[in-house]
Amino acid sequence: MSELRRPTESGVPEATKYMHPVLKKNYGKWAFHDRPRPGVLRHVGESGDAMFTVKAGTQRQMDVYTIRTLCDIADKYCDGYIRFTIRSAVEFMTPTEANVEPLIKALEGAGFPVGGTGNSVGFISHTQGWLHCDIPGTDASGVVKAMMDLLVDDFKAEEMPNRVKITTSCCQINCGGQGDIAINVQHTKPPMINHDLVSGVCERPAVIARCPVAAIRPALVNGKPSLEVDEKKCVCCGACYPPCPPMQINDPVNSKIAIWVGGKHSSTRTKPMFHKLVAAGLPNNAPRWPEVSEVVGKILAAYKQDARAWERMGEWIERIGWPRFFEMTGLPFTKYHVDNWRGGRANLNQSAHLHF
Amino acid sequence: MSKKMPATPLLDQLESGPWPSFVTGLKKLATDEGKPYADYMKSLLGQLELSYETRKGYWKGGTVGVFGYGAGVIARFSEVAEKHPESSEFHTLRIMPAPGFFYDTKTLREMCDIWAEHGSGLVALHGQSGDIMFQGCRTDQVQPAWEKFNAMGFDMGGAGAGVRTAASCIGPARCEQSCFDTLRAHKEIINDFTDDIHRPSLPYKMKFKFSGCANDCANATQRADVAVLGTWRDDMQVNQAEVKKKVAELGRKEFINQVIRMCPSQALALNDDDTLDVDNKSCVRCMHCINVCTKALKPGKDRGVAILVGGKRTLKIGDLMGSVVIPFMKLETDEDYERLVELAHNMLDFFAENALEHERTGEMIERIGLVNYLEGLGLELDVNMITQPRTNSYVRTDGWDDEVRKWNERKSAAAE
Lengths: 356, 416
Known about the structure:
The complex is a heterodimer of chains A (356) and B (416). Chain A is of the alpha+beta class and 356 residues long. Chain A folds into three domains: 16-109, Alpha-Beta Plaits, CATH 3.30.70; 129-188 and 252-340, 2-Layer Sandwich (Sulfite Reductase Hemoprotein, domain 1), CATH 3.30.413; 192-248, Alpha-Beta Plaits (2-Layer Sandwich), CATH 3.30.70. Chain A has helices at residues 21-25, 64-77, 100-109, 140-156, 195-201, 204-210, 290-306, 313-320, 322-329; strands at residues 30-37, 40-45, 50-56, 61-63, 81-84, 90-94, 166-169, 181-187, 192-193, 216-221, 224-229, 247-248, 255-261, 276-282. The radius of gyration of chain A is 24 Å and the shape is globular. Chain A starts with 20 loop residues before the first helix and ends in a 27-residue tail after the last helix. With 416 residues, chain B is of the alpha+beta class. Chain B is 37% helix and 15% strand. Chain B has 15 helices and 16 strands. In chain B, the strands form five sheets. In chain B, strands 8-9-10-15-16 form a five-stranded mixed beta sheet. A four-stranded antiparallel beta sheet of chain B has the order 2-4-7-6. In chain B, helix 2 (22-30) packs across helix 3 (38-54). The radius of gyration of chain B is 26 Å and the shape is globular. Chains A and B meet through strand 1, strand 4, helix 2, strand 5 and helix 4 of A and helix 2, helix 3, strand 1, strand 5 and helix 4 of B. Strand 4 of chain A pairs antiparallel with strand 6 of chain B, so a sheet runs across the interface.
């Protein structure tokens, strides 16, 4: 094995190495920006230089042919530079205004919708799902493709009250993060345990420690050391499944989809907010999840119609109140919406402020 | 003889519609006969179709790595390899991109060529971790693929209980609102922690993210154990001529609706001559008015960073937002950056010594209390760390006089 090469522990490369010369020249010296049309940003430097950015959607999980197509477009219009956003949109930048329209045509012609700027529905941030994750309850790429097919016009226009960030997560760990709308797997039954495998596969103390409600305890089953779950305590979160695969949590029928709303990362206007549960029990209905699309559509329609300019989803609901939200969306309100633990008191209405 | 394309009636339904289809991409790889990945991806498509039928995943983890590192390869072995043998191993290599996700096409094409030779030809740009995810590699191809990426000047990202790959907003490269050099801070910190990225030995993961202002485009506040956010101390910059233009453009009523009324601390008023009155002492640097009036308003000139610690997603005790531990520090000179890196090391060391197994920084702080965390790190208390003082009277206060003395000493030292 003497031929193995020691790694060069170089960390991240210098970003300026991969930047368009106009970005390097105006680094830290930008004066302002505006948006000439949806999907296009114009940044103007103190030097008077302008940089046009055309933003487009991708499928995130890209084959090398798709990436090479993006490279061809960047070579033709952007001097060979390309950038991606934190939510997997792709950005093409050019200092030449005359390149903008042909660039948009080239992207749309190659199947990449141009948009995602300003007050649009951005690209859905998503996780790995059945394609690659070891614990997924659903397929993120499929949910996102199905949703974006329906939301593409809202991606291409800037007609929402504020930006709408949608996320998906394939389990309750929620790698997708906070969203104005979050589409997340919600398990409804405790794990099914294969007791023959537990002692051979799982580090039992670590699994017990992982449970947020202390529902797992060691047990001897059929003469073998295993684990058992107090099903009355279990909150069906699936946290035991990654360290102990014989505790199967995914279930084709009982792993459902839940919708959460009003999450927000930024400190813009209001402080950052967590998203809140509004719907659950939706079937994990591959390959196009129509029940999920229907609920998301209702929420977006109510927000678009009723929110004031610049109100994010969560801010809109704070203003109109939750009774009005449930009324406008037609979603049922159940006991599962009530945050029913000690720390959840902050989510109860401790006032005489009532909506009628 | 090449393998037959599997029937994928469910996945086929994800090929129609206006949004780019990942299924079409997978099929393109699977049907490029003669390429090393064609049969590999046919097999993968077969397994993915099975998941769509049964609504279950079929990957299990394991240990696969590269020589010299203890993390960065996400191992995947198929549980249905007897039916889909070619894709029995489908590992991911996490490779860290340049801060801000910048590329030239030569680099991307070279990466594609390497992945077409050694992997599946499938790449996620980017994973939620901030890595380039080279998805789908056989165990014996991991090392040769890695050596080529590494020779290009790229390094492996984090995984497991170590420091993770960072993320940053576009920062000063193309944003007038960025209050510090997010890309430099990202590089300075990450490249000083490569040992903790590549040889994970912490209680659990530790993430750094960098956003140039309160808009937090890197989603740092809630997604990072250490969120570095740009802000400023002096007055915001106002170009009154541009304010007047914006008022004329929106109309006075809409300007009041969209700018004045939306200010969270009621720090704004519209003057009779359509100029803007800013109460900078009440301003919380939230960015709203600046976002709406991009030509008229800008952050101030005395810029720096605030640091929020403890953000994380659900596992285990539920979601946590980061909270303020440094309300302001300058980040301009080389010495400032050295201080930031030193602070990050102190945070990591305290976490390594005090967190329980599988506990994140935010959970540790919830368990031990913010005051103990601050004392452990030698950080000074600041009123900006709280929303309001305590409301629960069950607290022992017999050290009160000492604490008052410390506060007064600090105040007089600052006044000198």
